[in-house]
Amino acid sequence: MLLVAADRREFAGFEGLVFRPAAGARSLAAGELNGVPALFAANGVGRRAAAAAARAIAGANPVAALVSTGFAGALAPDYKVGDLFVAQRVIGGGVGYSGRLPACPNGSCRRGTLLTVDRVVQSAEEKRRLAASSGAQAVDMEAAAVAEVAAERSLPFYCVRALSDDAEAAFPIDFNRALRADGSFSITDILRQVGLSRARRRQLARLKRDGERAARSLAAFLSTCEFAR
Fold it and tell me: Fewer CB within 10 Å, N side or C side of the chain?
């Protein structure tokens, strides 16, 4: 099984994973998920990075299922940071994909439609527009690409995400400006935008805490799940 995220910090809730650069992925670790051998890949933000990792690693390893995972933003107003979301449908680039439901007997989750877009959704207003136009309950930047690779290879596809920001959250800096073409963020640009603003520092610290909370929730949930073999 191959789990694909954008950043290895999204896997921070798992203990014992050792990430190293690998062909096709900026960071790759081997481990287990609920007793089943699994590969954990993080190759950057966006569809291009996710698709490259999924194709390369699935092509070089015996992979029984593809799982798009990591963080997502809430579009539904009642979703909270740390909630788990399993996508029954993923929409991206005008194409829809079905997602399977893993068996998670000890974990509760939200279910619905996830929208994959090509930019960081920065504001509550933009989230409301996306929710109204797509009918989705959550948004990310990679899942549709992993779903496409799963369809190409006739592999079972799952999408399990932890919500790292709610529908009313607004980011203090422009992450799209800081996003590089390779799917990484420029720390220099982020720090330049934060500058000497105490308010922005506090907001950035809150985003970090919310991400850590989401990572813990994600690992705890995935560790209870069974996926198709």
Answer: C
Domains of the chain (ranges, CATH numbers): 2-222 (3.40.50.1580)
Tell me how far apart the alpha carbons of residues 142 and 7 are, in angstroms, rounded to a whole number: 11
Kindly write down the DSSP assignment for every residue of 28-67, as one continuous string.
Answer: EEEEEETTEEEEEEE--SSHHHHHHHHHHHHHHS--S-EE
Q: What is the pLDDT of residues 73-126, one digit of tens each?
A: 999 999 999 999 999 999 998 899 999 999 887 678 999 999 999 999 999 999
Interacting residues of 198 by C-beta distance below 8 A, sequence separation 6+? none
Helix, strand, or coil (residue 112): strand
Q: Are 69 and 41 in contact (CB under 8 A)?
A: no
Main-chain dihedrals φ then ψ at residue 42, nearest 5 degrees: -135, 120
Burial (CB count within 10 angstroms: exposed 0-12, middle 13-18, buried 19+), residue 150: buried
